[in-house]
Design goal:
It is a single chain. By secondary structure, this protein is of the alpha/beta class. It folds into 4 domains: 7-52; 76-129; 134-186; 222-379, Ribonuclease H-like superfamily/Ribonuclease H (Nucleotidyltransferase, domain 5). Helices cover 53% and strands 9% of the residues. The protein is built from 16 helices and 5 strands. The protein has helices at 7-18, 23-30, 34-47, 55-89, 93-105, 110-117, 121-129, 134-152, 159-170, 176-186, 261-275, 292-295, 297-305, 322-334, 344-359, 373-380; strands at residues 222-232, 235-244, 249-256, 285-288, 309-312. A hairpin with a 4-residue loop joins β2 and β3. α5 runs antiparallel to α6, α5 (93-105) packs across α7 and α8 packs across α10. The longest helix is centred in the N-terminal third of the chain and has 35 residues, at 55-89.
Length: 391
């Protein structure tokens, strides 16, 4: 079968005709049949709307479109067959039956679906009549448990957190891959941390007593504190927290509409009142950045009177206060990015509920052997410390 002429060739031939030369002359000079040139001219007039197509032309065009569509569908079917063969080679023939059932629910005949996927109809119907296996029943039960845990975590846990709750909280033996697969099938996902900080080389200062080493063996040896803000329709709301680096527990917090020294001092005072039992915090470190609230006389004097040693990281370096920055990242992702709060009161209530109702008591941490801060302190501390009282 001869190859078709390129579009550019056809266009040039039609230009010769439009210049006034006859069909016979142009056909003879180009070495093509006159009938071919007449057909090109007719099609060109139809495309430009200067002539109505004949029924035969319309039928021919429809037939060409049908043939192109048939070829396209044959390619799709061939791709489906190869995909089904690859799935069966991987040891997952049941996935093809599940796909057949899904196609049947959408109106595709079972015979056609089985043919496209390369499986037998008898095998499909046998699998449909067969009662669910013990593995399928367990996976359905696990999916329900996973959905409940994900909901209880405020839809923040990913597969590691959900598995930790199953293993450590409910005593269910399950692998992380199984949890991840079931969460993917159920359309469940955790919230990623927002990572915006740029790495800045550490600079030594005489007042930095931590130097990025936040590991501690007992409570009240190192506290970290920080302030951040969040907008509402009424204006900004500022919040300050004090965390115990040993258990990542929020031991003090304060919320205000103004970012002043008394905001940080109030959070520190709450932590001291809750944890400063019989001089337990004496000799501990309170670590912050170089914000004016933490370098103020009121904050520093309140820390010294409680026996705490003030410590300041370098300027503009979030890694020097990584524990506090990580907490803000979690709160931002798990709470504040997921809802718009109109008033400062609504936001303050939401933050309070997150800290005291979820984070301290229920949220599991990979750094704490997948325990919550309160559970970690109760399990690993010889003299468990009571929960801080809310103001």
């Amino acid at each position: 079968m001869p190859k078709p002429y390129p579009p550019e060739f056809r266009r040039r031939a039609l230009d010769l005709l439009e210049s006034g030369r006859s069909v016979r002359e142009v056909a003879a000079s180009l070495g093509i049949a006159e009938s071919c040139l007449h057909r090109w001219k007719r099609l060109d007039l139809i495309e430009r709307g200067l002539r109505s197509p004949s029924p035969a032309t319309v039928e021919s065009a429809a037939l060409a479109q049908a043939r192109a569509r048939i070829a396209e569908l044959e390619n799709e079917v061939e791709a489906l067959r190869k995909a089904a063969a690859a799935a069966r080679a991987g040891g997952a023939p049941k996935s093809a039956f599940a796909l057949v059932a899904e196609l049947a629910d959408e109106g595709v005949p079972v015979k056609q679906a089985c043919l496209a996927l390369g499986v037998s109809r008898s095998g499909f119907y046998d699998a449909r009549r067969r009662p669910p296996s013990a593995r399928a029943i367990r996976q359905a039960w696990l999916t329900d448990q996973i959905a409940a845990i994900h909901q209880a975590s405020r839809q923040t846990y990913g597969s590691p957190g959900v598995r930790a709750e199953l293993v450590h909280g409910q005593g269910v033996a399950v692998s992380r891959k199984t949890v991840a697969e079931l969460m993917w099938r159920a359309g469940l996902a955790g919230l990623p941390l927002r990572r915006r900080a740029k790495r800045v080389p550490a600079s030594k200062t005489v007042t930095d007593l931590v130097k990025r080493d936040f590991r501690r063996d007992d409570p009240n040896q190192l506290w970290v504190t920080d302030i951040t803000e969040h907008p509402t329709r009424e204006g900004k709301l500022y919040r300050c927290v004090v965390l115990d680096a040993y258990s990542r527990r929020v031991v003090g917090w304060a919320i205000d509409s103004r970012q002043r020294a008394d905001l940080a001092t109030s959070a520190l005072g709450m932590a001291i009142d809750a944890r400063g039992i019989a001089g337990q915090i004496s000799g501990g470190i309170i670590h912050a950045d170089h914000g004016t609230q933490f370098t103020s006389w009121t904050f520093t004097e309140r820390a010294r009177r409680a026996g705490l040693l003030p410590s300041l990281g370098t300027v503009g370096d979030p890694y020097d206060n990584a524990v506090a920055e990580a907490f803000w990242g979690r709160m931002q992702t798990e709470l504040l990015d997921r809802q718009r709060l109109k008033t400062r009161v609504e936001l303050a209530n939401a933050i309070f509920e997150y800290i005291e109702g979820f984070y301290n008591r229920r949220r599991r941490h990979s750094a704490l052997d997948w325990m919550s801060p309160l559970q970690f302190e109760t399990t690993h501390t010889s003299n468990p410390i009571s929960s801080p009282t809310s103001p």
